[in-house]
Amino acid sequence: MRLLADLSEAERLRLAISAAGDLVYDWTPGDGRMVWSGDPAAHLGLAEATQFLNDNEFHALIDHAAAEARMRLVLSPPADGGPFHLEYSMQTGGAPVWVEERGVCLLGEDGQAERIVGLVRNITERKLREAHLAWAASYDEMTGHLNRLRLRERLAQHLELNTGKPKAVAYFVAAIDDLAVINETYGFDAADEVIVAVGRRLSEVAGANGVIGRTAGNKFGIILEGCGAPEMSERAASLRTAVRTRVIPTRAGTVSATVSLGGVALTNDARSSQEAMARAEEALDRSKSTGRDTFAAYTHSPQRESLRKRTVSIGDQIVTALAENRIVLAYQPIVEAKTGDIAGHECLVRIQRPEGEIIGAADFVPVAEQLGLVRRLDRRVLELTVAALEEYRGASLSLNVSGMTASDGPTLESYVAYIEAHADVASRLVVELTETAALLDMEESMRFVSRVRALGAKVAIDDFGAGYTSFRNLQSLHVDMVKIDGSFVKGLAASRDNQIFVRTLVDLARNFNLSTVAEWVSDAREADILRAFGVDYLQGFYFGKPEIEKPWKK
């Protein structure tokens, strides 16, 4: 075995080049001879064995443009001899092989290329990866149809073409009915097969002139030419029939699927691709409200349009308030039932307008949930609450977590990580999870509760009694307290039924060693009844309204 030190400089260089995945050639254009440092066919992974002893053999297998570029190096070499860089494909009977070539021209006294020395490398894998990335930028990987972005671009093109001589064009959105049930019954792999099969059937009906794309997990968008408002119902029926009439074979068994559709006529009812998609979705929502395997066309409604504009406006206010740090907290006291002493405060989210006006949660939280902005609100409330706990070491604060945050794994992970990063205040923090949110995904909720409590914080079930938590579910969650839904406390003194229900909830919580908080307490009679029932803590306007000013700064 020869040591590296025993090798000549040329041999060491040859080893290094080979290890880098390159092959060296020495080309003398005068006689066309090419000398290689190894076997070029084997190195490049070519299907046919050839030694490429001259440039004619080499040029015969590469694409025409690359052969011309190489000959230009001979006829008109760079004044300084290079360097040069080429990429091209080679075809030898099998799959194309992509080659990267780098080199320099060694010039004679007459400025002509006497020799060309270069390196070649097989870059087929890189080219295939780049091609896949370029494809994935436009197409849905599972179904092969356009992705949402590209479909929206095609919609915009149709709308632009329609500005001169309008043509009948419609946009449909089709949603696979009850895909969650298919997931649970047959498994996610079978559900994926159903998605692919439904997309294929819709595409067959759309035909060569139709355009189809996957816009969401269970949704496809379809552009159909020659389809105006009068033809939409008939074309939608064809799409639905194509899915409904044949079962779909999957590895888990045969599945029967249907789709519901919403549609909009581009000529009459949409001025932009965004508007077309939104209005088709609006029509789909109306369609699904009547059952499954249904269709509804968009119809203009001044009331809906007004509501939509208001929703968009409020959404803009939320985003702007987040960006400008105008999300604030209002603090409402929670008192001990027996003594009336303040035990802590609940942090309630508010928006403060630039001029100072305060907007209540009821005016923007439902919109935040509708637009998917509530996760950002939850995170901001957590940050503000933690900052308040760090500011005043005597504070004990609670805050709410929305159902969207509680049911989203990555968002919850980030939420818990933030508490963990501020573990020194966790013992004075209570996280309130609504009963209905907890039931959305019991397994995820149990994991969340366990992790939050492990950090020293407490967890409460908010709006207790409004949902359908079973005794077993309540026990499984291992929370610290329950907050009795205020709708059962309001008017408690005048409602015998509510009194029986609240007493039952309190007894149930006591059996599980859980503290109880009654919300919406509005007068002394309600407070006395709740104390008699054994409620531990009371909260409501009777004890104090939510205030922006921090209680410990009064």
Secondary structure blueprint with pairings:
Elements: H1 9-19, E1 23-28, E2 33-36, H2 40-44, H3 55-59, H4 64-75, E3 84-90, E4 97-107, E5 113-122, H5 124-136, H6 148-161, E6 169-176, H7 179-186, H8 188-206, E7 211-216, E8 219-225, H9 232-244, E9 248-250, E10 253-255, E11 259-265, H10 266-269, H11 273-288, E12 295-297, H12 302-323, E13 327-336, E14 342-352, E15 358-359, H13 365-371, H14 374-391, E16 397-401, H15 403-406, H16 409-421, E17 429-434, H17 435-440, H18 442-454, E18 458-464, H19 471-477, E19 481-484, H20 486-489, H21 496-511, E20 515-518, H22 524-533, E21 537-538
Parallel strand pairs: 11-12, 14-16, 16-17, 17-18, 18-19, 19-20, 20-21
Antiparallel strand pairs: 1-2, 1-5, 3-4, 4-5, 6-8, 6-11, 7-8, 9-10, 13-14, 13-21, 14-15
Helix pairs in contact: 6-11, 7-8, 8-9, 14-16, 16-18
Describe the structure.
- The protein is an alpha/beta fold.
- It folds into 3 domains: 4-129, 2-Layer Sandwich (Beta-Lactamase), CATH 3.30.450; 139-300, 2-Layer Sandwich (Alpha-Beta Plaits); 309-553, TIM Barrel, CATH 3.20.20.
- The strands form 4 sheets. The protein has an 8-stranded mixed beta barrel with strand order 13-14-16-17-18-19-20-21, surrounded by 4 helices. A 5-stranded antiparallel beta sheet has the order 2-1-5-4-3, with helices on both faces.
- A hairpin with a 6-residue loop joins strand 3 (84-90) and strand 4 (97-107).
- The model is unreliable at 1-7 (pLDDT under 50).
Largest sheet: 8 strands, mixed, barrel
| The CATH architecture of the largest domain | Alpha-Beta Barrel
| Strand order in the largest sheet | 13-14-16-17-18-19-20-21
Please mark out the parts with pLDDT under 50 across 5 or more consecutive residues, or reply none. Answer: 1-7
Please write the CATH class name of the largest domain: Alpha Beta
Distance between the termini: 86 Å
Roughly what percent helix? 40-55%
Which overall shape is indicated by the principal axes computed on the Cα atoms? Answer: elongated
Q: What is the gyration radius calculated from CA atoms? A: 35 Å
> How many H/I helices?
22
| CATH fold-level label of the largest domain | TIM Barrel
Decide which structural class fits the backbone.
alpha/beta
Report the β-strand fraction as a percent range: 15-25%
Q: How many strands in all? A: 21
Give the count of structural domains.
3
Per CATH, the superfamily of the largest domain is: EAL domain
Mean pLDDT over all positions: 87
